[in-house]
Amino acid sequence: MLFPRYRRMLMLCVLSLALYASGAIAGEEVQTVTIGFVGALSGVSESFGKGLANAAELAIFEANRNPFKINGKRVQFRLVRMDDRNDAERARRVATALVQAEVVGVIGGTNSNTSIAVSKIFADAGIPQISPTSSFRRYTDQGFRTTFRMLGIDDDACIYLGEYVVKELHAQRIAVIDNGTTFGVNVSSRFSEVAREHGGVIVSRDSVSDVLMNFGEILRRVKAQDIDAVFFGGYSEQTSMLAKSMLREEVKARLVTSMNGIVGSSFLISSGIAANGTVAQETGMPFNKMPGWKKFEADFSQRFDFQISIMTPYAYDAAHVLMAAVRQANSLNPHKITNALHEISFKGLTGVIAFDAVGNPRSPSYTIYEVQNQKWKPMKTNTMR
């Protein structure tokens, strides 16, 4: 087919230009170092997954402009994208393919379920895996030395959100809905516990499919129970549909979520006026508090026709810290790169990145946002010590 052939020719041209710009054509030996990306690049989470992959690609482009040498040869990184479609079994197959491709490290998966599904495959191969979005505690509790995450744990995030909803939003009667996934059930259960500890009442608890898009039946039932808030433990696309369903059913309660990546323009665009009043807690500090944010935003927007989500900077930093570990290890051996990741302290876009003994960030932050006049406004940031 002409199009794939043209695409391959274009990629070769781009690679040739990159090598020329780096000085590699001027008689220097170059070694191509492959980094894997595994995540949802099609299906309901396509936009989210591709945005993360694009962020990793941007980091690699930047690193290749200032290459370093290992064993006398210039290092040129490249990213291999693999689509797991948010499916655990497919994720295992593509993870095996990345191992066979001899990648030095992997960015992904893009949710907790798929990240957990592939972690043993990478651990058995000794390949470091950095998930930019996984927040479920079990991901790093498995005991694999190769497993790292960029986000704080969703259990810990609920400590702040549950108190905020009851004490500062004065929401006493709360309906809780999860989407049946490991993430959704876990975060909903922890939020419910914390809300009760602070005097909130969980008036109903529902579990739905992770592909359900019509919440009308549940909302009509909970609306009659005089609720102050609806907490949803699920993914970003469903959250948008829930917000629109609440507007359509005239449910006046607040919509509350945690750690599902909805803070960004995509949710505002897809939800319209239904977004107003939504409260969401996400990892990290607000964008405008990140050092170097304006440059990142400009560079990303210039290169990619994708919206920036709250998780996008973490994929960018995950790629940068992995490449920094390659440089610190002065080796392409994945075992030595893993050791370097356990020792590294890297100043990234999202702050100083350093991992504890099991691969969690050492001092994660969580910020609570609210949509006001169809704009996200940061309300409160908490940092764990």
UniProtKB/TrEMBL annotation:
Keyword annotations of the record: Signal
Keyword set includes Membrane: no
Domain Leucine-binding protein: 32-373
Residues that span the membrane, as ranges: none
Family: Belongs to the leucine-binding protein family.
The keyword 4Fe-4S is annotated on this UniProt entry: no
Taxonomic superkingdom: Bacteria
Record protein name field: Branched-chain amino acid ABC transporter substrate-binding protein
